[in-house]
């Protein structure tokens, strides 16, 4: 049975996480009312899909933020289809929250992959170091680094998908 299949479970999750979710939604959407709607929609979706939550894969917080990310994107797209004039004539962008949530999801996914893969991805992709340099530092052939990068990226993609990230 999933973590959010009973009303009590939803209430507990709401009490524990709604404030943080609301903060992200407000910063992203720039509208308190829309942020409240985003949080409510997040918990509605979580409740409907409660049987799909697996604490072995990730925390409830991680899962709720993945759902919120999709809700914020959906609300942002709906608002873009029906543009309105905000105070001051500038419509807030969804991009800062999207970027923050994506960075947070990648960080969480990186924690879930093997240490060898994580280290090689950090060095080659995030620090932009050449494969040969990383291979020399680790005392392994360059081909091993290439293989670890390949399989590390695959593992990272699986971890992100398990967390609810969608392309």
Characteristics:
167 residues, mainly alpha, Rna Polymerase Sigma Factor, Chain: A, Arc Repressor Mutant, subunit A, 2 domains, 7 helices, 72% helix
CATH architecture label of the largest domain: Orthogonal Bundle
The CATH superfamily of the largest domain is RNA polymerase sigma factor, region 2, helix turn helix motif
Helix and strand content put the structural class at mainly alpha
- The span between the termini is 28 Å
Alpha plus pi helix count? 7
The Rg value, from CA coordinates, equals 19 Å
Note the beta-strand portion: under 5%
The CATH class of the largest domain, by name, is Mainly Alpha
* N-to-C order of helices and strands: HHHHHHH
CATH topology of the largest domain: Rna Polymerase Sigma Factor, Chain: A
The pLDDT mean sits at 81
Multimeric organization: single chain
Large-scale geometry: elongated
- The helicity comes to over 70%
The residue ranges in which pLDDT falls below 50 over 5 or more consecutive positions are: 85-91
Major β-sheet annotation: none
Number of strands: 0
Give the tally of structural domains. Answer: 2
């Amino acid at each position: 049975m999933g973590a959010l299949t009973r009303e009590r479970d939803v209430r507990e999750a709401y009490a524990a996480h709604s404030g943080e979710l609301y903060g992200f939604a407000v910063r992203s959407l720039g509208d308190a009312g829309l942020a409240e709607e985003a949080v409510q929609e997040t918990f509605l979706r979580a409740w409907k899909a409660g049987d799909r939550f697996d604490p072995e894969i990730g925390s409830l917080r991680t899962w709720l933020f993945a759902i919120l990310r999709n809700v914020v994107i959906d609300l942002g797209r709906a608002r873009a289809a029906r543009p309105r004039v905000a105070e001051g004539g500038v419509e807030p962008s969804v991009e800062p929250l999207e970027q923050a949530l994506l960075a947070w999801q990648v960080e969480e996914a990186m924690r879930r992959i093997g240490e060898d893969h994580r280290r090689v991805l950090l060095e080659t992709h995030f620090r932009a170091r050449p494969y040969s340099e990383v291979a020399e530092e680790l005392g392994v052939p360059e081909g091993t680094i290439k293989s670890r990068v390949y399989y590390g990226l695959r593992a990272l993609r699986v971890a992100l998908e398990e967390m609810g990230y969608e392309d």
